[in-house]
Design a protein that fits this description.
The protein contains 8 helices and 5 strands, in the order βαβααβααβααβα. With about 210 residues, the chain is α/β, with parallel strands linked by helices. α4 packs across α7.
Length: about 210
């Protein structure tokens, strides 16, 4: 059986962690997750973005590069919840736009990011989970993480804009966009079946078809 290395991307609340967990269980793949509960900067960042944005980006760069390299070199198929590429293309750009990272710090970060990424193996597939901002807000509020209390619709909309721009030019590997507004792959196995089928078709190089009604 061929080995695959897949990354799951998407806005805050899109369902990346749930999908990664369910796919790992279904396919028997290794999985790795975004550092949230053990992240030493995330709570500080949400409380004071201007003071902590640069430090958070540097932390994520090291954390994700280590994950990416380890799972890409694993003998088993593997999947990671959030890609390293989003750090620069989405969140660092947002920090620059909002003024929480200075031009100087952003330039320094991009130099290091570009060097690190140039040394990493390319994934076989990037999955983009796309959900509308109102759905994202509902999911974020429902999970009730204290550190996410300051996330606003405006911030999510800015991230969404950057995701669309990034996906339009991303060409490192094949991509698969999954509209996640009405998907419930946690509680409805038929929904997970559809996602698995689409991923397997994409990895096999089959032409992408319309998402079936669910």
């Amino acid at each position: 059986m061929a080995k695959h290395f897949v990354l799951v991307s998407g806005n805050i609340g899109a369902g990346k962690t749930s999908l990664t967990k369910k796919l790992g269980e279904r396919l028997g793949w290794e999985t790795a997750y975004e550092s949230v509960d053990d992240n030493p900067y995330l709570a500080d960042f949400y409380a004071d973005m201007r003071s902590w944005a640069f430090y958070l980006q540097i932390y994520f760069l090291g954390h994700r590069a280590k994950q990416h390299l380890a799972l890409a070199k694993s003998e088993a198929s593997a999947m990671i919840d959030r890609s390293i590429y989003e750090d620069a293309e989405i969140f660092a750009r947002a920090a620059l736009e909002l003024g929480t990272v200075s031009d100087r710090d952003y330039g320094t970060y991009r130099q290091v990011f570009d060097l690190v990424v140039s040394l990493l193996p390319t994934p076989d597939l990037l999955i983009y989970l796309k959900a509308s901002v109102p759905v994202l807000m509902r999911r974020i509020q429902a999970r009730g993480r204290d550190m996410e209390g300051g996330v606003t619709e405006e911030y999510l909309s800015l991230l969404d804009k950057y995701y669309e721009e990034w996906m339009a030019r991303f060409d490192l590997c094949p991509t698969l966009t999954i509209r996640a507004d009405d998907l419930d792959y946690v509680h409805r196995p038929s929904h997970l079946d559809i996602v698995v089928e689409r991923i397997q078709d994409k990895l096999a190089g089959k032409e992408e078809i319309a998402f079936p009604e669910i």
